[in-house]
Amino acid sequence: MYPDFSTCLRLARNDKYCVFYKESRTMKIVNARRISQIFFFLLFVWFCIVSTIGERFWQLRGWPINWFLQLDPLVALGTILTTHTLYWPLLWALATVVLTIIFGRFFCGWVCPFGSLHHFVGFWARRKKKVSQKIQLNRYRKAQSIKYFILVVFLAMAAFPSAAATLQTGLLDPIPLVTRSFNLVLLTIIDRSANLISVTERFYEGAWLIFAVFLTAILLNLVIPRFYCRFLCPLGALFGVIDGLAIWKIGKKTADCVNCKLCERDCEGGCEPAGSIRISECVLCFNCLDGCRHSVIGYQTKPSVACKIIEPDISRRGFALSLVSGLFALGAVRLNNKLGSNWHHRVIRPPGALPEEEFLKRCIKCGQCMRVCPTNVIQPAGIEGGLENLWTPVLNNSIGSSGCQLNCVACGQVCPTSAIRHITLNEKRGVGEFADAGPIKMGTAFLDRNRCLPWAMDKPCIVCEENCPVSPKAIFTREYFSAIRDGILTVKDFRGQSIEIVENNLISGKFATGDYYCAIEDGRRWKITANTQNSIEISLGEISGKKPTKGDKIKIQIRLQRPYIDIEKCIGCGICEHECPVSGKKAVRVSAVGETRSADRRLLLKG
Amino acid sequence: MSDKEHNNFGRRQFLARAGKAGIAIAGCGIASYLLYDPTGPRPGVKAEDLVTLADFSVPRKTGQTMSIVQGPDRTKTVNKAIELLGGIERFVKPGDTVAVKPNVAFATPAMLGATANPQLIAEMVRLCYKGGATKVIVTDNPINDPASCFTLSGVGKAASQAGAEVVLPKTYLFKHTTLTDGRLIRNWPIFYGPFDKADKLIGISPIKHHHRAGASMSMKNWYGLLGGRRNVFHQDINTIIAELAMMVKPTLVILDGTEVMMTNGPTGGSISDLKRANTLIASTDCVAADSYGCGLLNLNVLDLPYLAQAEKAGAGTTDIKSLNPIVTTVT
After folding, report:
1. Given this model, what pLDDT does residue A522 score?
2. In B36-130, where does DSSP find H-type helix?
């Protein structure tokens, strides 16, 4: 028969227990689970890699890179609460929910790439511990109900009964979290030197915070295995709630349990299978099934022999408190009036983004738009536009290989929740059937005449005009001849095309750049082609009218093309800002005012 | 230390430990000596290891410096233009690695004419292989996102289908250079990598209006070789273009005036910015090519000060007549 409890423990500790255990010929269910976890994890990494614009097989060419986000029922539920609709690609979540109702939290234990990562790290961290310590680590803790409160807070914010609802699940929802952590941080750092995935080096502002959250979540496994899953994960909490309905459940088949607790040795969910199993915590790792030497634990439709606890461990009071907290939290976040007059002018959204309120109801901070953006201009926002803006996409024209490219709508194509609409090039550019609507403006460029070279420093430049992609250009110039400092000279002699001057202090060749002119008092001027210390060569052989003679004053001028912005043409793409040579703080900068998506941020009068 | 170790600690053990300590002290001392810096950092910019772009030009042949071919079909005109200069064999020798530098500055479709024509690039690549080249590289350091520029302009696909290797700018491909007699190109990063191993260099550019420089043609095409914050050079656009013409000594330039961007350059953005001029120029002298090309934009040599500057610096001639360019038409 079976050994008694103490022998069992002792033998297990020595890893010689297998003597008593006959290997099954069929694949163990835990091995099937491991294969599933590895498969889905690699699939997830693959989707991260292929989220690169391009036509090769390892690039974005129809790969369903949003699949994990679409499977995530918290994404679907969150957007249902905020928008009262189920955006069609999120119908995938229904499959997850149905399978959960049948089988339980299979997603956590079998599919979730973040869960698999925790699973592995937690396993690795405790591998050398004694069985008794492992059982201690994997016991149920009251604090596991925190995740339900987190879920309730987020859902309360999403279900806020007015236009002011906001979707903040993405902060801790594991799929968006792991997606942005891999795409924006890990992959970017790995690819940094090799540049195999991206041609140009990519940057993400504030990525340290994304990484800090990710790393903290991973390192917490060293304290308690699957710490994130057990205590924090709002998606796990959602599954925990649904799990009560599950047809198949882990439970005890017979009453022969000797309470050896080996089933709890590697219990990933901390759900106490040895006692009255807490179904809502069970992540379906099947380690208990595998660990039970007495064939007591089963995965069955019949009720467990031991009592089981189906409902999540939250009190009515706790629920009410977190609900109210959520509502007040949203109220508190909104006190900054960032959706009203105090909106931040640098929160420039990608083309096709919904009006700000609608946008915040859909954005899950997954970072797919930032990952796919070919120019790297889309960046995770900080909190300058409000706390709820964290990690939402904003355009930062100081980063990346260019501003927002005219012929690109990639961000809208990949947005899993349509916070950035799936627009066409015609719609973005305002041509074809969208000719009446005009192009989508992300904002408006403003010239800082105190920094602009032709305006502030009498230096020719107009790089902004050159690069403006709009036709006709939204940046145009007006010619201006500016007298240079100490540039009034006295004519000594005039011969051929050469003016000899009294002053003998010019820098030789300085005025030969093609931008300098020599003007006389009646307003006529000639282009300077060369100069020495005391003479100036001018161009255009035929000089009509009176020639400068001895004693006349001449003025050296520089020809400037001073840029102006045609606000009706400007689309706020930021290419001018990106290219402006006045780096650091650019002399031309885009502000979100005038953006198409917002009626109350419009600047121009219609018609 | 256990009791046992404590009791056994004798002379031998002490010497061993003293030896280790001595090595550690000596190590620290030697490291300090080797790393000793008596002055601290000095002012000034750290000098980079400088490179110089090779001279890719082929020997001059009187009367075969420039050819101008009229015709609407770029494949035909470029073949004819090169044939008139002595055939591709004059420019590409068997075994050569040829770098082709088209203007792919912007992420716009080919039909808008802001970038070098893909058909023309493909034909040029084919011609290079016909001349015996073992490898043809097509490369540029564009203004917009590099990958997008090569994809949207169609140049990337056309080049690779014709068998060329497309090289996109990566950080490690840039090296610093100083142009002797140059005022602006001093200790400045250039897109050097693709040209390091090349034996020949062929520039291909459209003719475009350019508000600041007047026109963007084969000399301005070399702007793509500049790295770093190259936009600062717009303060002195004529000098930088002239210096680029001094720095780059190409085997051949193809100046494509089949469709000329008359307005809204250099980005264009509308077909209405283009005008058909059905002219293609091949030249070993890019100053001469541009001196002819500016006429298609209704400009003259004096409108583009960089031409005179480059001529003065010995980079070429603006006196087209002296070259006796061969003019012909193919239909």
Report:
1. 83
2. 74-84, 88-91, 118-130
